[in-house]
Design goal:
Number of domains: 1
Largest sheet: 7 strands, parallel
Shape: globular
CATH class: Alpha Beta
Strand order of the largest sheet: 3-2-1-4-5-6-7
CATH superfamily: NAD(P)-binding Rossmann-like Domain
Number of helices: 9
Structural class: alpha/beta
Bound molecules: NADP nicotinamide-adenine-dinucleotide phosphate
CATH topology: Rossmann fold
Length: 260
């Protein structure tokens, strides 16, 4: 019993493990990096805005953090990111594929190019990141990959129309199932988090308008948007040994949005 208590107290710890977080220059990704660092991990933060990456590493104030400027839409840059993490910290245990973009507009106004630009970051790049991470993780038969999907990958967005975003996030949900199943027997887990509405640069315009905020409040059973800390639990659960038998799942953290 005493040893059970001991193992539970360390269930969500990541001491000595290495994690990469893409899109760590703002919003959810910055929070994810801080949470993983607090749980004891070596953290590699990636994004295009190097000033933000360096400021985050400075703020974490430890030799357990590294900034690597990365455009995730470039598969070579993604490979270099994973190599930089392994070179600096010796391994890769957790990969959080969080970088994303949105571009709301009615589908009839959306060009094929605009659609492809969103899919390139939200889906193609998630595939590149999963594969680059898995190549390293499969060699050690251990690792956890966490994709950041969206409630808009579980259902239509329609009132805030964004076909490219909904399609790309829906793709992430099924990519997560497929890669989770492909790699499960070799120790590499792939799961996803589907956030509801959370404050970030991406949602700033929506939350800044009274109408936008009311829309979120009215359609979320919890009656409010998510707080930044309300994704911490799902992130730590999926990153840690607490979820070793969880494969290919997408966990909605959405105040009930996706169940009504
Ligand atoms: N906030 C929400 O309510 C919500 C809900 C559901 C899902 N999500 C998802 O959560 C994730 C984070 O979004 P957020 O809300 O935190 O928005 P955000 O504040 O706009 O953050 C987006 C992040 O993605 C990075 N990024 C975009 N394009 C990139 C590229 N080509 N290469 C590397 N990094 C890139 C940005 O960094 P740089 O610009 O520095 O490259 C930034 O750090 C996204 O996947 C989003 O779809 C958010």
């Amino acid at each position: 019993m005493a040893s059970d208590r001991l193992s539970q107290s360390s269930l969500f710890r990541l001491d000595g493990q290495t994690a990469i977080v893409t899109g760590a220059t703002s919003g959810l990704g910055e929070r994810f990096a801080r949470v993983l660092h607090d749980a004891g991990a070596y953290v590699v933060v990636a994004g295009r805005r190097t000033d933000r990456l360096n400021a985050l590493v400075d703020d974490l104030g430890s030799d357990r953090a590294l900034a690597v400027a990365t455009d995730v839409a470039d598969p070579d840059a993604v490979t270099a990111l994973v190599q930089a993490a392994v070179r600096r910290f010796g391994a890769l245990d957790v990969m959080v594929n969080n970088a994303g973009v949105s571009s709301p507009m009615p589908a009839e106004d959306e060009s094929a190019l605009a659609f492809a630009r969103v899919v390139a970051v939200n889906l193609n790049a998630v595939f590149s990141c999963c594969v680059a991470a898995a190549r390293v993780m499969l060699a050690r038969n251990i690792g956890s990959i966490i994709n950041v999907a969206s409630i808009l990958g579980l259902g239509a967005s329609w009132r805030i129309p964004q076909a490219s975003y909904a399609a790309s996030k829906g793709g992430v949900v099924n990519l997560t199932r497929e890669l989770g199943a492909q790699w499960a027997a070799r120790g590499v887990r792939v799961n996803a988090i589907a956030p509801g509405w959370f404050p970030s640069e991406m949602t700033a315009e929506l939350f800044d308008s009274e109408r936008g905020l009311r829309y979120v409040e009215r359609n979320t059973p919890a009656g409010r948007p998510g707080r930044p800390d309300e994704l911490d639990g799902a992130l730590l659960f999926l990153s840690s040994r607490a979820s070793t038998y969880v494969i290919g799942q997408t966990i909605a953290v959405d105040g009930g949005w996706s169940v009504v």
